[in-house]
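Entry
Fold in token form

___
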Amino acid sequence: MILTTMLALSAMTAARAAGPEELRAQAGFALEQSYQAAFGNMRYEAQSLADMQRWWREHTLGAPYTGRHRPIFVPAEQANKLGALVYGSMLAKYRKDGLIDNDPVAVAQLKRVCDRLIAVADQPALEWEYHLISTGAVNAFAVAGGKIGVLQGILKYTEDDYGLAVVLSHEVAHVVQRHLDERLSEIILIQLANVAGDIAAPHFLPVLIPKHLANIANMTATVHQIYNLFSYEGTRLAMAGFGRTQEAEADYVGLILMAKAGYDPLLAPAFWKRMLKGMPDPKFAQLVKWWRDHPLTSERIASVERWAPEARDGYYKP
């Protein structure tokens, strides 16, 4: 349950709109330098497929707990500053509307569960912050740097500390795994690929289109438009696929964090079953699931039921 690609993109937009000029300049410079440094020497290092595979593993980070290799070219410090800017901007709006932390009982529960999970997250350098937002929306989110928001509508499904621990451990896992940093890095990679395609298109289109067809008005322009459409849809599909991977990883690592914090992960499926009952998977969801950036709730239940015993056996400390 995270604000995924749209949050990453809106985060960058919000930072540009609201952040200090100095921070924006530093963040932009750091991002540019990071991916230039990462890719600058690749053509000299990679002479074969095996070289490229080795280069990839050497220049990507293994995710905690899973070891999954993924590109992270955004420095943690810059991602955390961006997260703080976005989070502060969001809270300012909610505070103006009087929607922050105005339910003492729910806030106390949020603090109780969050503090236990943060204590086992092994991220002492982060300035963790969490707030309850009084809206009926069913969601929770995390941004880089340990900033978490829980929308009050989800509490009707959590019911107790154990249910809330399922939600919050998932959000803490997103922070521990640096998923927002990863998403921003993926955006950089896809943008680079799209730029490369735009540069190459004028050269390969004349080869693909026979000369007698090229004389037809706007034929080349039409094919270029088709290329742009496939590029756009390919980007959507790629980002959705990345999102599902990160959401599943957050479910898995969240169970481990639950267990380490003393919450029995075997109780986690009950929360997801309540969610499925109250918010069923959309009709024909199986037909379009590859375009979704979150796994289907029914799929999450199956995964959590499979992973929970492993997390309990390896990490549970009552």
Notes: The first strand starts at residue 61 and ends at 62. Confidence is low (pLDDT under 50) at residues 1-32, 229-241.
